[in-house]
Amino acid sequence: MVQNGTEQLLTSDAVDRVVAQIDFTPLTGQKVYFQDQYIKDIKGIGFVNGDYIISSLRQQILAANCKLEEKAEQADYIIEARVGALGNDQHEVSYGIPASNVLSSVSALSPATPPIPAIPEISFAKKKQQVGAAKIGVFAYHRETKEPVWQAGVKASRSRSKESWFMGIGPLQSGTIYDGPMFAGAKIKRPIYQLFTKQYKQPEAPVPPVQYKDPHMFPIAKRLEQERQIEKIQHPDSDIQWAGHEEGSDQIKQLVDQASKLKPDEEEPAKE
């Protein structure tokens, strides 16, 4: 049975969980360069390889408001990372009679004996479990002096997928790569799920200012959008075209009102 999709989900989920544990906030506001020479040659399963890990770490660095430079000589600090594990394992447990071809092999030795077909697997219950694992270490040092300035330690995480069959009914699916209990790819109600499986809980990780898996609009993008709207109101005759906003809309007026509150108030005439 081909399990490429599940294997890639398990491995990438393990990488995502490890990266989400790494807190780059001690380097917030600093010019950093990410050294990827110890990661770029790593081969994984499908799309989960060195490039995926590098991009994930760069995203987490930017989420901590670090100034990521493209050249080492432009940075003050070098961030270096390495991968200690990237892969998955599979285990199967069957309760019943395993498949066997012993009798078929014995009957083939005797021409007088009619051929005996192989005995198929007869199981009352069956369980298949897959585990994806990833391990990443990160540290930083000053580019010029080579003095160590920070290390995140070595982070490791596992993702899990479990499939169960009972009396030929299944698979009942659960694990960290699913949003909830599944039966043959479809969601099922939790009471039935609790009878056969259990939730896999990961230890809580440090919470960075921006969650790795969550969409986020950074403050600079919000500020630039607000400035563009203010410019449109203050200079209506400008040749600049602003798409997606009607002139004089209530939303733009609210943005202008909010922006005016951020400016210093004008001095009021002295009261008599």
Gyration radius, rounded: 29 Å
- Overall average residue pLDDT: 78
What fraction, in percent, of the residue positions are helical? 25-40%
Low-confidence residue ranges? 241-248, 263-268
Question: Please, how many domains?
Answer: 2
Spatial gap, N to C terminus? 89 Å
Name the helix and strand elements from N-terminus to C-terminus, one letter apiece: HEHEEHEEEEEHHH
Per DSSP, what share of the residues sits in E-state strands of 2 or more residues?
25-35%
Question: Helix/strand-derived class?
Answer: alpha+beta
Major beta sheet, specifics? Answer: 8 strands, mixed
Principal-axes geometry comes out as elongated
Tally of contiguous helical segments: 6
How many β-strands, per DSSP?
A: 8
> In which order are the strands of the major sheet placed?
2-1-3-4-5-6-7-8
Task: Outline the secondary-structure elements.
Layout: H1 4-21, E1 31-35, H2 50-63, E2 67-69, E3 77-97, H3 102-109, E4 122-142, E5 148-166, E6 169-175, E7 182-183, E8 186-187, H4 190-196, H5 219-234, H6 250-262
Parallel strand pairs: 1-2, 1-3
Antiparallel strand pairs: 3-4, 4-5, 5-6, 6-7, 7-8
Helix pairs in contact: 1-2, 5-6
Structure description:
The chain is an alpha+beta fold. The chain folds into 2 domains: 4-196, no CATH class; 219-262, no CATH class. The protein is 28% helix and 29% strand. It has helices at residues 4-21, 50-63, 102-109, 190-196, 219-234, 250-262; strands at residues 31-35, 67-69, 77-97, 122-142, 148-166, 169-175, 182-183, 186-187. An 8-stranded mixed β-sheet has the order 2-1-3-4-5-6-7-8. Helix 5 packs across helix 6 (250-262). The radius of gyration is 29 Å and the shape is elongated. Mean pLDDT is 78; it is low at 241-248 and 263-268. Residues 232-272 are annotated as: Disordered.
